[in-house]
Write the C-alpha cells for this entry.
Amino acid sequence: MLKGKKAVVTGSTSGIGLAMARQFAKNGADIVINGFGDADEIERTRSQIESEFGVRARYVGADLSQSAATRQFIEDAVEALGGIDILVNNAGIQHTALIEEFPVDRWDAIIALNLSAVFHGTAAALPHMKKQGWGRIINIASAHGLVASPMKSAYVAAKHGVVGLTKVTALETAGQGITCNAICPGWVRTALVERQIEALAQKNGTDIETAARELLSEKQPSLDFVTPDQLAAGAVFLCSDAAAQMTGTQLTMDGGWTAR
Ligand code: NAD
C-alpha cells in the first residue's frame, strides 16, 4: 500500500516507533529510523528491516531535544531517502513528580523533545511535502493529550500541546494533499511504561505483574495493554486513501481510558 513512499519515524530504535517503522516497511515504504541505543543493535535492526521487507532502511541519528539538530535531522533524512512523504513524530520521554518538586531540567527536556521537536520536525518537513502536494504527518500524542493525571505536569502539558499543534498543522495544510493527525495511545508496555510499572511495584511492595494490573485498572477499562503493532496499524491507516479526509483529529487507541 505504501510502495515508493518515504517514511521517517523519530524515536524508532525501540517501542512504538520501531513497530511503526517495521509496519511501514512491511507495507512497502522506504524508511528512516532514528533514536538512541547501542550502535550494533541499531545496525542489526536497520539491516533486518531491509532484508525482511525488501525496502531501503537508513539510520539517521540525532538528539531531537535540540531545535537545530531536529531541523537538520529532517534534511539528513530527506537526503538519505531522496524525499519525505510520511513523518511520524514519535520520540518521547517521561518523568513523574509533583509540580513543586518537578526538576526544572526534566521539565525542559520533556517540553523540548515531546513538544518542540514535533514543531521543528513538522516545520522542516512541510516545505518538501507542500512542493510535492502529498504528505502525512502523524504525531504520537497520548491519552494524556486529552486528559490529565497527577505527577505528569510536563508530559501532560506537552501532549496537550501536540494535540493543539496537530490541529494547526491540519488547518495550514488543508486542501494541499497533506494531512496531520495525532494518535493518542493508552498504556502500551514499552520501556517508557515498564519503568513506571517497576516504580509502582516498589512503592506497593508487589511483584511486577501485580503492579502492571494495578496500572491498567486505574486508567484503562479494557484491562489490557495497547500493543505497538496495533498503533502501527492505525498509523498505516492514516496514510491510506480511506483517511485522506481525516485531518486535525485524534485517533484514540486507549482501551476506553478517555471514555470515562
Ligand atoms: P520508548 O522509550 O520505547 O521509545 C522512545 C524512543 O525515543 C526511543 O527510540 C529513544 O531512543 C528515542 N529517544 C529518546 N530521547 C530521544 C532524543 N532526545 N532524540 C531522539 N530520540 C530519542 O517509548 P515508547 O513508549 O515507544 O514511546 C514512544 C512515544 O509514544 C512517546 O512519544 C510516548 O510519549 C508515546 N506514548 C507512549 C505510551 C506508552 O504507554 N508507552 C502511551 C502514550 C503515548
About this structure: The chain has a mean pLDDT of 97. Residues 11-17, 34-37, 63-65, 90-93, 113-114, 140, 142, 185, 187-188, 190-193 surround nicotinamide-adenine-dinucleotide (CB under 6 Å). The chain has two domains: 6-188+226-259, 189-225.
